[in-house]
Amino acid sequence: MFVAIVFALIIVASIVFHFWSPWWWTPVASNWGNIDDTIILTFWVTGAVFVAVCLFMSYCVWEYRYRPERKAEYKPEDKKLEFRLTWLTALGVVALLAPGLVVWNKYITVPENAFKIEVLAYQWGWNYRLPGDDGVLGKTSVGFINDDNPYGLDLSDPNSKDDILVMDADLHLKINQPVKIELRSLDVLHNFYIPQFRAKMDTLPGIITYYWFTPEKKGEYEILCAEYCGTGHYAMRGYVKVDEEQDYSNWLAKQISFEKMLTKKELNKNLLIAEK
Amino acid sequence: MTDEYTDNKIETKAADSSSGSYVPPAETIPAQEAPDQELYHAKSFWTKWVFCQDAKVIGIQYALTATAIGFIGLILSWGMRLQLGFPETFSFLGPATYYQSVTMHGMIMVIYLLTALFLGGFGNYLIPLMVGARDMVFPYVNMVSYWMFLVAVLVLIASFFVPGGPTGAGWTLYPPQAILPGTPGSEMGIVLMLVSLSLFVIGFTMGGLNYVITILQSRTRGMTLMRMPLTIWGIFTATVLALLAFPALFVACIMMTLDNLLGTSFFMPEIFTMGEKLEYGGGSPILFQHLFWFFGHPEVYIVALPAFGIVSDLISVHARKNVFGYRMMVWAIVIIGALSFIVWAHHMYVSGMNPWFGFFFATTTLIIAVPTAIKVYNWVLTLWRGNIHLTIPMLFSLGFIVTFVNGGITGLFLGNVIIDVPLSDTYFVVAHFHMVMGIAPLMVVFGAIYHWYPLITGRHLNQTLGKIHFWITFVGAYAIYFPMHYLGFIGVPRRYFEMYDSPYMTSGVGLNQFITVAALIVGFTQILFLYNIFTSWYKGEKSERNPWKANSLEWHTPDYPPTHGNFGKELPVVYRWPYDFSVPGSDKEYIPQDVPPSQVPTAKAEQT
Fold this sequence. Notes:
heterodimer; A: alpha+beta; Immunoglobulin-like; 2 domains; six-stranded mixed beta sheet; five-stranded mixed beta sheet; 5 helices; 39% helix; elongated; B: mainly alpha; 1% strand
């Protein structure tokens, strides 16, 4: 009696917790609202199954608790029931999987007009690179990295000269402009994750990974590293600021291209030599 | 009526085909095909209790060693929880120590506690007894298996004392960070971890071959495959999985050791770190992840399948009712085991592997939900119309159902590739896997210990302490992990030493403190359990023979508790499955497996 009630109460308490708890996801700030929809669908379907199974179990514990005069049923199998339950479950699984795969297809299909941004991860921080007017990011290799070339850009690639280097943990994005995030790492695994955008992907040394989204809400969002990357993992943060067109242009105007950086460094060097 | 008739026919046919031979009419006993096994008879204290070849003693050695290292894992979790709940009060733990605790906690619990306990502990103790064998087929190899396991554990412990401490690479040990200086324990710690894992795999392979071959070759007469208790089916399938999956871990460990010590580049691409380019180049970190999870996903079922099997038996015995849908249960175990080899990359949806893999692995992963759900239905339907004794094993079994269903359905979130994108690497994952492969299997471990303790020692565990142990552990663990899912919904990432002041994370502070307090209470309750185990060994209430009135062979040995050689002069002969409870027409409430139909002429048991 007591046991059945406690088990039922735990299930009821779980439901109450769900409705009363203040803990729920942050409002979505990108186009990935339909990820939330698939979660909600899964939540209610599986939640209903969980509650039904556990309450049925509690009912059995109460109704069929030990009595000396009771004799348990002897029924090794019930083909019809097993058959029905199997197909019902299979249908439920299809209903959860199908919409999920549709959204995943969207997630990995980058729209043509997406603006490419390179996210460069290292232990423990973030840098960014935007394509210049040509709209193409220049080739890179860690072998090219030196003090003058912190991103390891390929100097022989004509596309690399006008690339804009954002050597700062904060990145600005234009609102409603789809972006393709191209992820690169210098050292170990990291993961570029902004909870409000719902999207994430690991960065790896040696290959370029990607994902895309459209920021749809103005604001400032914290970047978290979501793949364990060593002692400083928890401190590897930054901010994405989603701006209106004008603010974005102002910010962009302040950034410096690779070519300019090289000439500036060259100038500084010459100055130093001249001073001597 | 017609329905039942066809059912019977199909059942007989299935039994025939699965055992691969003709099943004789129940009353004729086939002649013994091979002579009785020659056993090694221990003469001294050392060969009897230390370097012992008796599977029962080896099982206990495995269980005690696993429990001891498990307690270290438990204590490590307290350190983590104190840091997460009260970062200001308990500032003694730096980030390096925190990450080392996370890593060692994970590895210890998954490999050295759960795998060793289910297969090495329960497997060794129960397999020969339940299939009607005198011992494992290779007792000497079995002994070596335990000692290899012990050495693996000692090497693991040694890593706590080397310069730099144990590895803090996370239990997944992902390269390149695992062997680069930005990670704690990247000097000797990681090497010892990889060596320890390799030793574990070697030791396990010796044991695993024993379990599989004993089950296939040493079953007593009449013990067809379709008459084996589900405990044995679970352990058998899990061992097959382990024998196929552990080699992937083994090669991954060897290759990473070479990368680390000899400078090869299996997993290491060109890397620029600490202001210089390393000499590595050309390797792939994702290759390691594929190898690791090719082992790692079956590993989940290596822990879960024995739990599935054992809990089926516990529910059936304590509800006095046959396991509902036994054949379906067997096939579900086998199908889950087979599918578990083609779902591994669902741990890698956001790892940067080819995104097209997502479609395939999401589909296979969700297909596993079907046989798993069938098992859940059948457990609950076994309770239905039963006569349920609310003994402690039954309580733990009920706790298992709740936590397993909870952890199972969150698997439907994480397996569905697009839902995994926001939730992976958050506390949702931590809550999910603790519920489904931490708490749920542990519920079964506890239930099984309360169930078989009388068989091992001849005494019962203290019932009052047991009930306290159950309620605090079950309710407490549920209170830890159920709310933790919501931290994951918020987006709080796992493996964060400190949350700082992100607005959506500070809202979880109170929750984190609550979880920490609950974790400490649950943890300390396990000490009570340990106390119960040790004191009941010599002070516990004496148990009569077969106290739960079970049918399987281990309770029907001539000596109770069973002694060396298990079955005295004659091996038992089996006539039925182990679930003939409350058979209509019979005056007996239960009919043990070795009772021939002639002794229960009125019983209308179905042919099994």
